[in-house]
Write a structure and sequence with these properties.
Elements: H1 4-15, H2 33-55, H3 57-63, H4 65-78, H5 90-96, H6 101-118, E1 129-130, E2 137-141, E3 144-151, E4 154-160, H7 162-171, E5 175-176, H8 177-187, H9 191-203
Antiparallel strand pairs: 1-5, 2-3, 3-4
């Protein structure tokens, strides 16, 4: 008979459809091992797929639900992790999509949204000091830039222009307004755009 660790690994592999046969196991339930494994496989698949569908809404929209679920199944077939929490699957699942540029970006945005959701509110800043909300993340390059942040009970996602990205980059290190103004001068942004953008994104909770 195999030891417990070997049997657990075989069970885990079978759940993820890695085509490894389970060692013999005494069955006193009247239900065969194959039938019981089918129940466990279905329950595991449903839990994981529902969790990843919830964590990767943008990626699911890009792929479509059918192809997304196929990507989940392919991921599970090769996954070797042992973490018991469903949330621990999000990052490795995103990594499994990295070979596709379009999916790599959508998965990164979804992961950023998850991180934003888990980020606590910032501590009060010193008077006259400004920066970005700690949940803020900016992704993308070239002409495609995305802003992700938590606003109350919601995670917000916005596609932004290069000028706004540069403005927010100036606020990212934090500091007194005089320091931020010096960074903004280096970027040669129009004063009117700076005034309007600071007011708008302060109201949205991005600049704090």
């Amino acid at each position: 008979m195999p030891n417990l660790r070997d049997w657990q690994e075989s069970f885990r592999a079978k759940l993820r459809e890695r085509r490894i046969e389970l060692p013999p196991l005494a069955d006193s339930t009247g239900l065969g091992v194959d039938a019981r494994m089918a129940v466990y496989q279905y329950a595991y698949w449903i839990r994981v797929s529902e969790s990843l569908l919830e964590d990767f809404p943008l990626t699911e929209r890009v792929l479509g639900k059918k192809l997304f679920l196929k990507a989940v199944r392919d991921f599970l077939a090769g996954y070797r992790g042992y973490a018991p929490e469903l949330g621990a699957l999000s990052a490795p699942f995103a990594s499994s999509l990295a070979d596709s540029p379009g999916l790599r970006l959508s998965a990164a945005i979804d992961l950023a949204a998850l991180a934003a959701w888990r980020t606590p509110d910032p501590a009060p800043r010193a008077p006259g000091s400004f920066g970005l909300h700690p949940s803020v993340q900016m992704l993308g390059s070239g002409r495609r830039h995305y802003l992700i942040w938590r606003q109350g009970d919601h995670v917000m996602r916005e596609r932004i222009g290069i000028a706004l990205r540069e403005l927010l980059d100036a606020f990212a290190p934090g500091g007194k307004m005089e320091e931020i103004a010096e960074r903004l001068e280096e970027k040669a942004l129009a004063p009117g755009f700076v005034r309007e953008s600071v007011a708008e994104w302060s109201a949205c909770g991005v600049i704090v």
